[in-house]
Specification:
- By secondary structure, the protein is mainly β.
- It folds into 2 domains: 12-71, no CATH class; 76-195, Jelly Rolls.
- The chain is 12% helix and 36% strand.
- It contains 1 helix and 13 strands, in the order αβββββββββββββ.
- It has one helix at 12-35, and strands at 36-38, 54-57, 60-65, 68-71, 76-80, 91-98, 107-117, 123-129, 137-139, 141-143, 158-159, 173-180, 186-195.
- The strands form 4 sheets. It has a 4-stranded mixed sheet with strand order 1-2-3-4. It has a 4-stranded antiparallel sheet with strand order 6-12-8-10, with no helix packed on it. A 3-stranded antiparallel sheet has the order 5-13-7, with no helix packed on it.
- A hairpin with a 2-residue loop joins strand 3 (60-65) and strand 4.
Length: 206
């Protein structure tokens, strides 16, 4: 850099500061563009994700944190098996629910149930994947006598420990099986919560 600028040119320090400010703004804008990815590609196809980056896929949002993608909010679905005026009855295949595309490759994280009218005896419910033949719950959902939801159950529901057993794919059909129906119970609803299976480790770029 010359020691002196020719007459009529701006001060070199002022010019340098202005150029640095422009570059900083351009870098910030580029980082902002990378911060959110609106794409239908697989998560692992996103090149060099950065800490805090979001990935939007349909109604599901993932965030890249601590070296891996995590669901920002686990998608939850309420499946109405019986209307509020219908008695709950026991038997397999009481309701069929197709897995939507936004749940493709996700796994069941939690399952609960409720009734609009409490029964005088226990209601137990299983979720079964028609496409794989797998029961998604190792311990069935239980609604205790006199209770309206399974959240207060003495025996909480437990999902299958093997990931592949509780994994679903778009187009799979899930059956709601009522193994025991509480006497007088009406209006059964099942709440299914899903999460992203752990992806292979991805190094956070330095």
């Amino acid at each position: 850099m010359p020691k002196y600028y020719p007459p009529g040119t701006p001060n070199w320090m002022t010019d340098l500061v202005a150029r640095v400010a422009v570059l900083q703004r351009q870098v910030a804008e580029l980082q902002g563009l990378r911060r959110t990815t609106l794409s239908r590609k697989r998560l692992l196809d996103v090149a060099r994700p950065i800490e805090g980056q979001l990935f939007v896929w349909g109604t599901t949002v993932y965030v890249y944190t601590e070296g891996q993608w995590r669901l920002l909010a686990n998608p939850s679905y309420e499946i109405k098996v019986r209307s509020d005026t219908q008695f709950v009855t026991s038997g397999d295949e009481k309701f069929w629910w197709p897995v939507p595309k936004e749940l493709d490759n996700l796994v069941l994280f939690d399952a609960q149930a409720g009734v609009s009218t409490a029964g005088s005896s226990v209601t137990t419910v299983q979720i079964r994947n028609e496409s794989t033949g797998n029961d998604l719950l190792a311990t069935r959902i239980t609604i205790d006598a006199g209770q309206k939801t399974s959240y207060t159950a003495a025996t909480p529901s437990v999902v299958q420990p093997v990931l592949a057993t509780r994994q679903v794919h778009k187009g799979d059909g899930l059956w709601i099986d009522v193994d025991t129906a509480g006497a007088g119970a009406k209006g059964l609803c099942v709440i299914a919560v899903f999460e992203l299976p752990d992806p292979p480790p991805v190094a956070v770029p330095s």
